[in-house]
Design goal:
This protein is α/β, with parallel strands linked by helices and 198 residues long. It has helices spanning 2-11, 42-49, 69-84, 106-133, 171-184, and strands at residues 16-20, 32-36, 54-57, 88-92, 137-143, 156-158, 193-195.
Length: 198
């Protein structure tokens, strides 16, 4: 997800610093600064944020077990943002956070969520609460389950979930939405749920 955000941001002419958790190896983005560091190292985060205007948080985990990575890294990131005077953040969480729980379609809600993603969303709930309580200019983007299929129509953006079920969205669509939001601030201090119903 993060790679697509970087690639699309560069294509739009933005100056980008990509903070990556592992040795980037052969990852190169013309025009981007790549910093390899630990998201649980507040000093490293603060250094990477110096002189920046905004943050996109797009961290994921592969483990299905309990985690505190999202909440702990967000706690440190918010502190580093305050230290560096960075106010704007767009954080990508997903379906299963907040009122989107139970709105990802039958397969996701009854199999994928309870078996694979339940624990990470327990921590994402804590993460979202930290963001909401912060003094930042935040937007929390909650994508539907990721799909590699190409979209044939425009995806939906929902701020009042109600009975809406969104079953899929591509990572490229999410990256594009995140960058649109950074540029426009249309959903400032909101939690847009994005994706396709079918």
């Amino acid at each position: 997800m993060g790679r697509l955000v970087v690639t699309q941001a560069l294509a739009r002419g933005h100056k980008v610093t990509a903070f990556v958790r592992r040795d980037p190896g052969n990852i190169t983005w013309d025009g981007a600064t790549v910093v390899c560091g630990d998201v649980l190292d507040r000093l490293a985060l603060s250094k990477a944020l110096a002189g920046k205007d905004a943050v996109v948080y797009a961290i994921g985990v592969k483990s299905t077990g309990p985690t505190t990575l999202f909440s702990e890294s967000m706690r440190l990131l918010l502190s580093a943002m305050e230290q560096q005077g960075v106010k704007r953040i767009v954080c990508i969480t997903g379906v299963g956070a907040g009122e989107t729980k139970g709105h990802g379609g039958f397969l996701y809600d009854h199999f994928i969520f309870p078996l694979f993603t339940k624990n990470r969303y327990a921590d994402k709930e804590r993460q979202e609460q930290m963001i909401r309580q912060s003094n930042t200019d935040w937007t929390i983007v909650r994508p539907a389950p990721f799909s590699d299929a190409k979209a044939r129509r425009e995806f939906q953006v929902v701020t009042e979930v109600g009975n809406v079920v969104l079953r899929k969205v591509s990572r490229a669509e999410v990256a594009s939405f995140v960058l649109d939001e950074l540029e426009t601030g249309r959903y400032l201090r909101q939690t847009p749920f994005i994706g396709h119903a079918k």
